Request: fold
Amino acid sequence: MIRQATILFKLFLIKLSDMELLEAMRPDYKRCPACGATGCCKPHDEYGRDMISIEKGIRKEHEIFIQRVICDSCGATHALLPDVLIPCSSYTLRFILHVLRAYFNRNCTVDSLCGHFGIAISTLYGWKKLFKEHANLWLSALLRIYMVSIEALNYFEHIHSLPSLFFQRYGFSFLQRRHTTHCNRSP
Reply:
């Protein structure tokens, strides 16, 4: 899988929907993650998948197509997965964070919150647990950077691609369940 950086900073202020972010994405597959060769990946195929996103506070479902590339050097194929999508999940990152924000605001009961967004209570609590684990990983990395120097922290504040960097650093995507070792969605 090749993670594609998209605009996710200021997540709740962006006027674009997740669908519009996907449509604006320009594929970037300069380096093969399997063999490390550069300039050898070319478009190969695509596959369909469901995407559950949030638009104006309402759950929206879309069918989208994910482009795959093939490496001329090693023959490996990779899906170009934008940061707005979580591997092996239909829910977008923004949808999950929107649900978690509503949960932490405590404006309604868990039952009504889950009913409004069309998710199971166990799903909500699973997201809450993952968020806590992954946020602690990311925040501890920030703390280590701060301890090194304030200049490093100032630099870090200008990085707008948290999901891509998180994936590069930890080898799994923000809010992706780690017990899933391989998620094969063949076309």
Remarks:
- The two ends are 14 Å apart (CA to CA).
- Strands lie at 2-4, 41-55, 58-71, 77-82.
